[in-house]
From TrEMBL:
Signal sequence, renumbered to the chain: 1-28
Protein name: Putative aliphatic sulfonates-binding protein
PANTHER family the UniProt entry points to: ALIPHATIC SULFONATES-BINDING PROTEIN-RELATED
Record keyword Transmembrane present: no
Family: Belongs to the bacterial solute-binding protein SsuA/TauA family.
GO cellular component: membrane; periplasmic space
Protein task: Part of a binding-protein-dependent transport system for aliphatic sulfonates. Putative binding protein.
Lineage of the organism: Bacteria, Pseudomonadati, Pseudomonadota, Betaproteobacteria, Burkholderiales
Underlying gene: ssuA
Keywords: Signal, Transport
Subcellular location(s) of the protein: Periplasm
One Pfam family matching this protein: NMT1
Length: 331
């Protein structure tokens, strides 16, 4: 085999195994997506950094990159399921509810657990001192969110039944208003809403997620996007990991990026970033799939989702179809 033929074959084979990044315009690569619509929340630090730096627009110059903000994961995944997004970030519970409802989506990546980044809050003068004191109380949280699972686990640890509380399903901004005016007894919430409330009104933390919930974060994509543009998905995950490395080495600049985008105070941003461990994005490990299955099983056992779900069934397995096509092209 000549040097040039050998080099061409080696290049295509490396691409087939995912060793090369996405390069718009390369003849051996699939076309870039025409549009990449990304759903994110204020807590999505890696995505916010990418947005503020324009990193994806540089990696995908032939694609229209759009950024759509959501107040919580359930709303984001509903948009993903109806074809309004290609990819987005949520906590642990929204994908379970979406899968149980038959939504067509795939887990494509995950960040490490962040158990200190969510909490059950009570007012400073509240008589509630332990999780057992939630019995007979009104507890606010976003239905189908990571806070929902935190409450499930908190009640179980306290030896309480789901029927022992009155759940008040509210999105974060409405829940905070209800919490401040005393319409609810407790509020389960995640950062940065948690950090902002902590600084503004000094609530007491009845419990955070430590020992209860890992507060895991997942990247989910539409099935069509994973099938048609697997290399683009991988580039997105690689860029998210690069963004996290930037956050770890440039805390001051990252906090300013996030504050400028979100309108949150710098003090709030620094507080919620301080609770966030290094968060590179990796494929779901078997241990993380098992952990997520426990989330699904807990909701199913309480009758909060209509049927059992098998999390592993919607975990993206990258590479196989796309790699096979590229390998065939090299023959």
């Amino acid at each position: 085999m000549s040097f040039h033929r050998h080099a061409l074959f080696a290049g295509v084979l490396a691409l087939a195994t995912g060793l090369l990044g996405f390069a718009p315009g390369a003849h051996s690569q699939p076309a870039a997506p025409k549009e990449i619509r990304i759903g994110f929340q204020k807590s999505a630090v890696n995505l916010v950094i990418l947005k503020q730096q324009g990193a994806l627009e540089k990696r995908f110059p032939d694609s229209k990159v759009s950024w759509i903000e959501f107040p919580a994961g359930p709303q984001l995944l509903e948009a993903l399921a109806v074809g309004s997004l290609e990819i987005g970030l949520t906590g642990d519970s929204p994908p379970v509810f979406a899968q149980a409802a038959g939504k067509d989506l795939r887990y494509v990546g995950a960040e490490p657990p962040k158990p200190q980044s969510s909490a059950i809050l009570v007012k400073p003068d509240s008589p509630l001192r332990t999780l057992a004191d939630l019995k007979g109380r009104k507890v606010a949280f976003q239905k189908g969110s990571s806070a929902h699972y935190l409450v499930v686990r908190a009640l179980a640890q306290a030896g309480l039944q789901w029927s022992d509380i009155t759940p008040i399903y509210l999105p974060p901004s409405d829940a905070r208003a209800a919490f401040e005016r005393g319409s609810v007894d407790a509020w389960a919430i995640w950062d940065p809403y948690y950090a902002a409330t902590e600084l503004d009104i000094q609530p007491r933390v009845l419990s955070n997620g430590v020992g209860l919930s890992g507060n895991n974060s997942f990247y989910l994509a539409s099935t069509a996007f994973t099938q048609n543009h697997p290399q683009a998905v991988q580039v997105l995950l690689d860029e998210l990991t690069r963004a996290d490395a930037y956050v770890q080495s440039h805390r001051k600049e990252s906090a300013q990026f996030i504050a400028d985008f979100s309108g949150l105070s710098l003090a709030t941003v620094h507080l919620f970033i301080s609770r966030r461990p290094p968060s590179p994005v990796k494929p779901l490990s078997p241990a993380l799939v098992a952990d997520q299955q426990r989330v699904a099983d807990a909701f199913q056992q309480l009758g909060l989702i209509p049927k059992p779900v098998a999390v592993a069934e919607i975990v993206w397995q990258p590479g196989a179809p796309g790699a096979a096509r590229l390998a065939n092209a090299a023959r």
